[in-house]
What does this fold into?
Amino acid sequence: MTTAPQGFRLSAATGLHRGDRAYQQDQVEILAHSRVPGCALALVADGMGGKSGGRTAADQVVMIARQVFERYSPTGDDPAAMLRQLVVESHLMIKLTAITADEEPHSTLAAFLVLPNLSAWTVHAGDSRIYHFRGAELVRRTIDHSYVQRLIDEGKITEAQANTHPQSNLLTGCLGTQADPPVEISEIERLEIGDTLLACSDGLWHYLTPKEFGAIVNALNPREASEMLISKARQRARGTGDNLSLALIRVEALKT
It folds into this structure.
């Protein structure tokens, strides 16, 4: 939890669950800037590629994020350039690991940066998502780099049909593949008091609607919301759930 001089605080929580899988390949991290109050980087990485390959890839994304964010100066550096560097360096690190590994490690990425002036930036690759809520209302979410999302964009299936499509896990872009990853960066001009940013893997968003997400993150504090979201996803998975992970930050007024 980080307090900034403009009269707000960032209240944060993470959640991580193995689901019904034999191995945990998701990783999640929220980093408070070591030198500048009110600046934080949150990310989710959903690893893929064998029992150890996926976890290794996700671990490498977190490691690169720590290094890149430690070097980043919120007062002088370009936030978009920092997020681009996070994607590119993570991608190269995972590819280098694949040369000496039996598996083919890949990872998604969903990361957001909150700055002391309450602007924010997002970057994602794959089907891990970032949601922006104002109170309980969805302002925006990222669009997946996936085969079923392409079918949705072409009007061939609905979002509801995508959830049960046999190729719903097929990605069109992520980290560690032969092709360069997508680097899709967006700016949020200003967060308001009561806004929430949520990054999560498909193991979570597959089971909840944006309306349900918004109601939960608005009604509960971040820790309770994190626990509730994971609990609901686990109930609905009924013994078939994927790894699930989330990182959320809410902008709160300082109590006088």
Observations:
- Confidence is low (pLDDT under 50) at residues 1-5.
